[in-house]
Amino acid sequence: MAARPAITALGGGTGLSSLLSGLKRAEVDVTAVVTVADDGGSSGRLRRELGILPPGDIRNCLVALADDESLMGRLFQHRFADGDLSGHPFGNLFLAALTELTGDFDVAIQECSRVLNIRGAVVPSTLEQVRLWAERMDGSEACGETNIAAGFSPCRRVWFDPVPDAYPAAVEAVAGADMVVLGPGSLFTSVLPHLAVPEIAAALQRARGLRVYVCNVMTQPGETDGFCAGDHIARILEAAPGGIDVVVLHDGAFDVATLSAYRAMGQIPVHIDDARIAALGVRVVTAPLADAQGVVRHNPEALSKVLIDLADAQLRTPVLRSIEQ
Q1: Which domains does the chain have, with CATH numbers?
Q2: Which residues of 254-269 are buried (b: 16+ CB within 10 A; e: fewer)?
Q3: pTM for this predicted structure
Q4: Predicted confidence (pLDDT) per residue in 34-75, tens digit
Q5: In this structure, what is the dihedral angle of CA atoms 294, 295, 301, 305, given to the nearest 10 degrees?
Q6: What stretch of H or E contains 121?
Q7: What does the pLDDT look like over 143-184, one tens digit per residue?
Q8: Which of 210, 242, 257, 297 is deepest in the core (most CB within 10 A)?
């Protein structure tokens, strides 16, 4: 029997949970490493009021790896509409309650994983309370994921203050995977926060597996305005030199009306600048990956197929790299 590829996916927000929903149907062992920088919505409220780590992205990943028809999965996503609980998904409250009961956020995640009977594992990047900072191209600085995403100038870099220690299981998942996937997701608030944790950045640089970056299909106002694919890759390589082997990019048609709507919001398709990407030493893989009508986002099944093909090839012919990298 052929070995099952071990895939570790790093991210946050809707991009990571969407990817997981595709990977869980394949014959792979998947681990999601989730950033804990969220400070908005229900997660932000629970973080401020209870002092727990933000549960929202963790919840979405747990549900993404659960049975699609699971009543518990649907219950975890149920969002209260009225009263003091308005805006809180049940799963966030469940994680908060388990954290208080057990005293450990990671134990709460493990218990939720059992309740939902997920196909894979979900771990946080760190168990420390973190504050995400960003420097913009205009020299200004912003603190907090919500404030960063709400800005009007693209970002240059992000960092944590104070610098946190990594959750050991996250480092192990990166180091031991046959393939490590960064993205898809917001570059500065979902992907690069992982590399602002020094042990995770170092693990990515030393990883034995194939390192793959899934670039967003569209630019993102307040984060990547005007960025080409090479700009995305360059920011990751600044945070983890030599940390990408392959970039996966959407190459396909868009609905004209959809593009027009996105342009009105300040978003355009990410341009594939092949020469610059080649100069950065990264291999390009393209495919029609996006659902391009109404909302432009990666199709989980199409993206998963490309990644699984890359993981299978890695098992057959592992990428070799210098141990000094």
Answers
A1: 1-14+167-315 (3.40.50.10680), 36-124 (no CATH)
A2: beeebbeebeeeebeb
A3: 0.95
A4: 999 999 999 999 999 999 999 999 999 999 999 887 889 999
A5: 110
A6: strand 121-124
A7: 999 999 998 899 999 999 999 999 999 999 999 999 999 999
A8: 210
